[in-house]
Amino acid sequence: MSRDNNFPIKYAILELKEKGGYITNYKDIVRGYIVSKCWVVESSIKYFSDGSSKLFHKVIFPYKDLDTLKTSLRNDDQYIGQRVTINYDFNYNPYPVDVVSELFDSYEDAKIISEEKNKETKNHIASKVYFNISDPRFKQTLSAYKHEFEEQLSICQLFEKLSLLNTEDMTITEGISHDKELQLLKKL
């Protein structure tokens, strides 16, 4: 992939995941939400039975391998891997894509949303504690889960910092705002 592709570039919220194992039924574990630049490859509108609609975007994040960073940290390094290569399938659809519902022109606007998502995730930690609230082990387990979440979140924040440093060559594309896109798509 050449770095001079012509896809629009925006900020979006990247859900950083770690591969889960046997204990999680091999489901990925969400470790945190960060702001990342991305290439926007497609936008579409989805209509719901109640008459509402929502705009979705297929994007490609240049860096999203949290496991690589964690491995490098064990070796006293800070490496987030190589930039993602945009590939195309048989029908010339780009991949690997992620679907997001919001795009941002500024880092600050996106950061507010990522912090809200991280706060919401932290608030749901208590639901993962299997002990009854009156059980003395509840408080200890909850404290351990919150401590683990904070550790993982600090790694995610480091990932965000390194990702933004490595994407300084990606300039945010100015253009049609999210609301104008939605109105345009509705007209179509």
- Beta fraction of the residues? 15-25%
Mean pLDDT: 87
Unreliable runs: none
Largest pleated sheet: 4 strands, antiparallel
- Strand-pairing-aware structural class: alpha+beta
Head-to-tail CA distance between termini: 32 Å
Count of DSSP strands: 6
Strands side by side in the biggest sheet: 1-2-3-6
Number of helical regions: 4
Rounded Rg:
19 Å
Helix content: 25-40%
Any idea what the shape is? Answer: globular
Along the chain, the helix and strand elements come as EEEHEEEHHH
Structure commentary:
The protein is α+β, with helices and mostly antiparallel strands and about 190 residues long. The protein is about 35% helix and about 25% strand. It has a four-stranded antiparallel beta sheet. β2 and β3 (about 55-60) form a beta hairpin. The radius of gyration is 19 Å and the shape is globular. It starts with 8 loop residues before the first strand and ends with a helix.
Key features?
single chain; 188 residues; alpha+beta; four-stranded antiparallel beta sheet; two-stranded antiparallel sheet; 4 helices; 23% strand; globular
Helices and strands, with pairings:
Elements: E1 9-18, E2 29-47, E3 53-60, H1 66-74, E4 87-88, E5 94-95, E6 98-100, H2 107-123, H3 136-166, H4 178-187
Antiparallel strand pairs: 1-2, 2-3, 3-6, 4-5
Provide a quick synopsis of the model.
By secondary structure, the chain is an alpha+beta fold. It contains 4 helices and 6 strands. The protein has helices at 66-74, 107-123, 136-166, 178-187, and strands spanning 9-18, 29-47, 53-60, 87-88, 94-95, 98-100.
